[in-house]
Amino acid sequence: MPRPGPRPYECVRRAWHSERHQPMRGTLIQELFRIVGDAHSVDTRSNREWQEKLPVVVLRAEEILYSKANSETEYMELGTLWERANDAIDTIIRRDDDAAAASDSSGSESGLPPQKGLSQPAPQQPELLLEWHLPPLT
After folding, report:
1. In sequence order, what are the residues at sequence separation of 6 or more whose Cβ sits closer than 8 angstroms to the Cβ of residue 97?
2. What residue spans carry the Low complexity bias annotation (predicted)?
3. Is 101 part of a structural domain of the chain?
4. Is 0.70 topped by the overall pTM?
């Protein structure tokens, strides 16, 4: 059963978005890889399946962060990155749950119209993504 919450997020292009942001986005992607690596144990980081999924989850989360931010300053705010990254992961999980539920009820692959930005995930991803939440800062 899907988790309660807003409908799956559709990435949108905002007025402040620009192609010149690619280097800035690369920097934030590197920071996401760093905090995810720092937050997980050596056992988790050495898991082959986790390693294969890491780039997919990080890139999808960054796309959501970029789309949700109201400004370049908000997007690059490292002080809120931890919370925003977890919110993006929640968004991905809700989207995956909704896609899996639609697939179960309709018999189609996703049962949802194609979304802009993010590709439709495989139904088995929600369980894998649960491991992506970053633990609370201590």
Report:
1. 1, 2, 3, 126
2. 125-138
3. yes
4. no
* Residue 138 counted as domain residue: no
Q: Which pLDDT tens digit goes with each residue over 8-61?
A: 567 888 899 999 999 999 999 999 999 999 999 999 999 999 999 999 999 999
Alpha carbons 63 and 128: distance in angstroms, whole number: 19
CB 93 within 8 A of CB 3: yes
Answer whether residue 13 is part of any domain: no
Sign of CA dihedral 36, 40, 44, 46: positive
Structural domain of residue 69, as residue ranges? 21-130
Compute the distance between CA of residue 46 and CA of residue 17 in angstroms, rounded to an integer: 36
Q: How many domains does the chain have?
A: 1
In a domain, 137, yes or no: no
